[in-house]
## 1
Amino acid sequence: MRLGHARAHIKKPDRKDVLVVAFDEGSTVAGVFTKNQFCAAPVLVCREHLKKHASVRALVVNTGCANAGTGAQGLADARATCEAAAKLIGCAPREVLPFSTGVILEHLPMDRLLAGLPACMAGLTADGWGDAAEAIMTTDTLPKAASRQIDIHGHTVTITGIAKGAGMIEPNMATMLGFIATDAVVGEDVLADMVKEAADLSFNAITVDGDTSTNDSFVLIATAQAGNPPINGEGTAEYAKLQEAVNAVAIDLAQAIVRDGEGATKFITVKVEGGQTREECMRIGKSIANSPLVKTAFFASDPNLGRILAAIGKARVKDLDTSKIRVYLDAVLVAEHGGRAESYREELGAAVMKQPEITIRVVLNRGIESGTVWTCDFSYDYVKINADYRS
Amino acid sequence: MRLGHARAHIKKPDRKDVLVVAFDEGSTVAGVFTKNQFCAAPVLVCREHLKKHASVRALVVNTGCANAGTGAQGLADARATCEAAAKLIGCAPREVLPFSTGVILEHLPMDRLLAGLPACMAGLTADGWGDAAEAIMTTDTLPKAASRQIDIHGHTVTITGIAKGAGMIEPNMATMLGFIATDAVVGEDVLADMVKEAADLSFNAITVDGDTSTNDSFVLIATAQAGNPPINGEGTAEYAKLQEAVNAVAIDLAQAIVRDGEGATKFITVKVEGGQTREECMRIGKSIANSPLVKTAFFASDPNLGRILAAIGKARVKDLDTSKIRVYLDAVLVAEHGGRAESYREELGAAVMKQPEITIRVVLNRGIESGTVWTCDFSYDYVKINADYRS
């Protein structure tokens, strides 16, 4: 697996803005994509190319233009990108997956994009992950990469990923691109199951502003170079080991996105426990994590904790008994019996709120399921970044 | 009907913060309330007191403290408020409705609140609407009042209302209090139906930040003093006339809330037409109106209109054919065939975006239903107001 980038002047002069990731023959891929119905042309093309246990030879990623809201021309542009890359690589166009991120409703500058591909190919190198992470950034302030190694029957298996995204991270991923590759040898269907579980525990569990993009994509590639005996379906120890490592890389990347959330000054973990289903825990967790009032209170280090209760109450979980709910801020019990805990003192809450990393823990006391959501606070800079984005 | 206020120092010294609205015997009331499950104690008490065609003699409203997240003590405080007012008026406690707005998770200062009631009673006057509108404000910068007169069989019927609210206005009302009174003589059940329709077309059609409060309440009172022949169920011309006037007052108040939205600099109307159901039109309208990315783009007067498409796409309306959708900014066609309209020029969009009042019109081309949502932009000041609210 090798990576190469180019400075193709897609939107801004002289920045890394096109990335090619090339894979050896025998590589397979699975992915999950935005549920936004106005999804971008490259997402439509990815979905076409991604059949079961699909063969993949290259990813082509551009930043600066999302190729979304671009109609038939956008679709033709995404296909032409695949064809041009396939020609350079010597593979079928369906073995190339296109990804775009940036401004919506503008057409790709195809001449510049295609002119950049030979430079990407010429620069392909196995240790290009750092440059690759930079080449896919938009309003990100930091590149995002993570890696793990595990041992499968004496063979070292590596799992490495990069991601971009700093806003529009919910629900189910938004202006979020994530690419994780492993050299593991895996059987059919394994990747499709693994990418779904990893997405649910990572990119689908983060939120910056509750918006959902047209372009979100997360793909998992297996290059089959590690020499391990093939890993097959769920239930085996090897499967569990690989899934766990893929999850860990995905969670690292997802948390890096939240830490780099537009204007973020605090990293907030929302743990909801004691639910009847994971789904209801995640619903309450996201209701808290997406509340602008909760997020501005955290920015201000103001323990205005009633806003958390209001966010729980508006999640519309059926038959919720609010008198049974306990809310903690780190280890501080804030609310119980439908109101402020007797032991709670404002100074205790204020001390927790001042920290850069805070955990809100909600115990529903109605079941054994749980869910965790990661988010950030909501600052002046969020507005500034999004008001100024195109200028 | 008479109104009186007091400066009871609930939260801040020397501001109007308690309001009593007193009604003659024979007055009836109906209301709609927040769906937040952590709803405030006064909301629980209102629901108890509001039976079908309920008799009402007084509303007691305080600002400065929401009496929400206050458990059993909060409930006792709300009941004690009704009892104290009932004693002063000479009615049953269930004929008094309590309302609170302000900070959550703090107990009402009952001594100060109760001490304020005699001043409210002493100052009761028929022309106290202006002071009343001021006495219920929190982060509102302007008092909100509206009135209409209609003729019913030669009798002049007046409909007058006040409201407060500037944030947390969605879905289904939030830190929003609305009170509309009419002197019309109406039959049983009429008020319950009317208040629901008026709420759907007004307070439930506005959004400032997508948050939902614990205290939202909207009540409609009929004092039966106008001398008109009783207005009964739907279908009569008089019913339609009164409903239309109540709707108009409610929409005036709701729009005033949006215009005074926390940090708002622009008033945005989102009209969604050509839908299969009103519900799907409202869902898309609210998805646009609640998108922080759309709202910050409007604040910046930046025609980054792809964000509108993204907001339509994430509303998850089933079987939506994005290629059939047309999007207009005032009269400017922005998008069609899944992308930017050929006739669209950035200057045209930019010119519309600079205006203080803007209409986003989305034509779905799949049915005959429509829905309208009103919202405002999202500015630095929204963050400032909500980060500093308690200090």
## 2
Amino acid sequence: MVLSALGKNELKQMLSELITRYEGLKSQNLNLDMSRGRPCTEQLNLSDPMMENLFRDYGFKSESGTDCRNYGLIDGIPEAKRLFAELLGVSENEIILGGNSSLNMMYDAIARAMSFGVYGSREPWGRKPIKFLCPSPGYDRHFAITELFGIEMITVKMNPDGPDMDTVERLSAEDESIKGIWCVPKYSNPDGITYSDTVVRRFAAMKTKAPDFRIFWDNAYVVHHLTDEPDELLNIMDECKKAGNPDRVFIFSSTSKITYPGAGIAMLAASQNNIQLIKKQLSIQTIGPDKINQLRHTLFLKSVQGIKEHMKKHAAILKPKFDTVLGILESELGGKGIAEWNSPKGGYFISLNTLPGCATAAVKMAKEAGVVITPAGATYPYGHDPEDRNIRLAPTLPPIDELKKAMELFTVCVQIVSIKKLLGELNR
Amino acid sequence: MVLSALGKNELKQMLSELITRYEGLKSQNLNLDMSRGRPCTEQLNLSDPMMENLFRDYGFKSESGTDCRNYGLIDGIPEAKRLFAELLGVSENEIILGGNSSLNMMYDAIARAMSFGVYGSREPWGRKPIKFLCPSPGYDRHFAITELFGIEMITVKMNPDGPDMDTVERLSAEDESIKGIWCVPKYSNPDGITYSDTVVRRFAAMKTKAPDFRIFWDNAYVVHHLTDEPDELLNIMDECKKAGNPDRVFIFSSTSKITYPGAGIAMLAASQNNIQLIKKQLSIQTIGPDKINQLRHTLFLKSVQGIKEHMKKHAAILKPKFDTVLGILESELGGKGIAEWNSPKGGYFISLNTLPGCATAAVKMAKEAGVVITPAGATYPYGHDPEDRNIRLAPTLPPIDELKKAMELFTVCVQIVSIKKLLGELNR
């Protein structure tokens, strides 16, 4: 029953009942967190055999003969580079392994570009005001990096098959100060969208006024499927090469949500031109990443097939959680015309859109009753959702019984705020 | 017998014999490396019990209750912060733990200062041309960072008790564009000098024209003693506070040469004002360092006393190597008036000064016979030693029998080059 079709008295009656429910839930003193994409304990346990440290049987040696306890191999040990290159669909000389944070590798890529430029730059990016395209809703931590460096962010709409490419192409072709774009191309944060082949090809082939334009392709959820029919993402590196733009893309990923967020391995893939320049700068920046952790990961994960098998165990833990959230969304909000949401086939989030102007109020109400949701607006540049509609739900961390309580409370909040909105009673 | 007192014929006779020795050594096809301060395998073995991963008994939990496998604690786990804060003589809220590379933390500190400024900056350092003071001979990788960022480097002479403070004070007081100085205050690289109390106090108290001047205090060898009578270094943080300049110093260190260079823990200590600003920036830069490695280190090293006991085992391995090098220097070069060197009480290097204009030629000759020494000049900004005298010897990596061969060859090269110099036969 679409709520906007109801009369004022019916709505007021519903509101009254919902407020009673809200107060009842609030009195339970909930303390639940659905704000960040954190793996749960059961997921972390999956990787504990990694800590058996089998490398001791190999004398801590990489296949290259390098003692991983000592200095050396600034871009990673060969067997780990080979494994993760295959995972990302690039060659072994198109990848650099980092520490445990791919966010840090993205930050570094931006920071180096600002100070020194990228391969093909005529000058450092920081010499003049520059801009980034930000498909939104998107990942708040991407936007925080560009904001920190004073890079102007231009919001680009997300379509069901990826960023609105008409806008991306038009702006990139006409404005030389647009130096790049943030993308989460697979199971996007928060929408769970995987970019279509057409979108990937348009990214690879589009004209950019800036000769040193870079796509920051954050493939964070490359193998993070929730179903047996995973989305397929076209290989952006291959497409860029085919289109004659081999240097256009920086691909990022990590094992944060494969093994441990607190002790994983981050990676950057790019053309050899890009990699060679970055390695040169890295040789001044650092003595290199933790190689023992690379050895540990390689011996545990073994192969891309091994990673895929491992990810099925994650999916078995996560799928029921997503189903719980989706079930409650459907039972509480379905058919009422006050919210839309996606059913992702992978990734870490469910993205929900309320009626315009309702997101902030709903998140606030939930927080006041002990359920923390990602702040409304966080999924947009500068934390500003122009329609105040988007809310990101992160179902992975809480146990299912807590998820049920959190979602009941949250959906009650959405209903209360929506009805107030329909009644013209919502304070902005 | 001082060679300069000998006649031409005597020198020529000596030269002829030395060249015969050189050719003999060269024919052995040596392949030895004394170029970098790498720990040897026996040293690495000392920390292998760390890999027993005792943290599994604690459910991977930090004392704070945080699961170290997951996200969180961007500045480090409390027990590791407490341990390393005590090691560096600061409080727990004056330290940030990083990844495995203190060089990377120094690079980041410079990079952030260039892009955003430091606490108290009126503008980013990169907005105008700036300069750094570089006590030399010094650490080539420090100089490489400032060179990369286009920071002009001013060489400052090293005295036996630290940098020439008359020069440091005069330049810092008169030139606002001088924003900082590189220091290795204990067992300095390469001289093995520990700064005197007077030098430390002058650093803390000196006037700087730049209000946001920073001392980059790389305390890399804080517990890296070779003798039972270690040098004592005054606590720069305490002195800066006493002098009313609490925000002046960034202290860096790491466990690279305590546990593993390839998988250690780096740290930055500074005033709370500095730390708070850096933590704010870090929260955008990274999801935080590898916390499991912090847990691993804390459980293995246990306490500052534990670290000190552990370092005695390193010293037991290293002392004979340093003694070997010093013995050969004395027997081959002693009393000949062609070279001077130090006998450090800690650290990783022996610094040798040849006659002016001889260092490059001696290192080149050694390399041609298969012994790699740190390139001459590397210990000066821009790789330029104005007198071409300083050579850094790194005795830690090779086994003693190899060290003997390498040092015999090297000292033969120094003698050949010196005699050619005295004979006026040295080509520049």
